Amino acid sequence: MKPKILVARAIFPDIIERLAQYFDVERNDTDTVYSPDELRARLADKAGAITTASERIDAAVLAGAPHLRVVANMAVGYNNFDIDAMTAAGVMATNTPDVLNETTADFGWALLMATARRVTESERWLREGHWDKWAYDMFLGADVHGSTLGIIGMGRIGQAIARRAMGFNMRVVYHNRSRLDAMTEAACKASYVDKDTLLRTADHVILVLPYSAATHHTIGAAELATMKPTATLINLARGGIVDDVALAAALTNRQIAAAGLDVFEGEPKVHLDLLKVSNIVLTPHIASASAATRRGMASLAADNLIAALGFGAAAGKPPCLLNPAARKS
């Protein structure tokens, strides 16, 4: 008999067909987001699962899944995983890094440009029928070229964003948990500074750091007060890194010029105060949403699952294993 697996959200049909060569696949064609109780029930007889950020894998879920050996996240972030609980249960955790770096960096720039130049705000105004003449001060925004870009979180995506800044003749400063080596800094033409200096000096601040208890509300009221009143803030990382309530207040009071958000606290719900302000660009967690990249993520998640359950050329060695100790238990 084939091992049973769950594909917790809808994915590309050909990826399902590939998985079906090895597994008895339970698929979620309706793309319903399962409640914790339903997820636990569906995992009860499964050896593996492919999940997204919407499925929380914790001790309570694991307690009801005694046969589970691997959960493959179709995302680079894995704050939906309780890694300690998974390791203790002997459940391998994997993610899909690198395949989305360049696409996400592209979108970071799209969000930055739209925010700085008030693209969506002016489009809404035009669609509402307000445009009847040209005016010298109509939707004045901020220059991107020649400005200072501050990147908080200088992993592979942050570095890809920094490399793109060279074409705009920008000064790039960054803050990270640990400083990059000199060769990488030179390749990115980026200078390390402390967080306070970055917030005080950057014209545009972009967040690309992973979410954890330590990074919760990395940007809150105090940090927003430190930024320039002409600055923009872009969150490309995870909801919860920014205090959305504090951000809404800062935008309402014009404490900073504008913000662009692809992620939110409690998403897919968006705080009502953010929906009320005009100086913000809002997108529904689509930074990795190119056809090629999302397909690459799904394929890598499948690679991880297939290998973890003992099939394929990499049998027993999933390429993106987050908790090697689970494999040994």
From TrEMBL:
Under the cellular component aspect of Gene Ontology, which terms does the record hold? Answer: cytosol
* Entry similarity comment: Belongs to the D-isomer specific 2-hydroxyacid dehydrogenase family.
Write down the PANTHER family for this protein, in alphabetical order: 2-HYDROXYACID DEHYDROGENASE-RELATED, GLYOXYLATE_HYDROXYPYRUVATE REDUCTASE B
Classification via InterPro entries = D-isomer_2-hydroxyacid_DH, D-isomer_2_OHA_DH_cat_dom, D-isomer_DH_CS1, D-isomer_DH_NAD-bd, NAD(P)-bd_dom_sf
Species the sequence originates in: Pandoraea horticolens
| Coiled-coil ranges (or none) | none
For this protein, the Enzyme Commission number is: 1.1.1.79
> From the UniProt record, which GO molecular function terms apply?
glyoxylate reductase (NADPH) activity; hydroxypyruvate reductase [NAD(P)H] activity; NAD binding
Cite the D-isomer specific 2-hydroxyacid dehydrogenase NAD-binding domain residue spans from the record: 110-287
Question: What is this protein's record name?
Answer: Glyoxylate/hydroxypyruvate reductase B
Alphabetically list the UniProt keywords: NAD, Oxidoreductase, Pyruvate
Ranges for domain D-isomer specific 2-hydroxyacid dehydrogenase catalytic:
5-309
Which Pfam family name is an example for this entry? 2-Hacid_dh
Q: Do you know which PROSITE patterns this protein is assigned to?
A: D_2_HYDROXYACID_DH_1
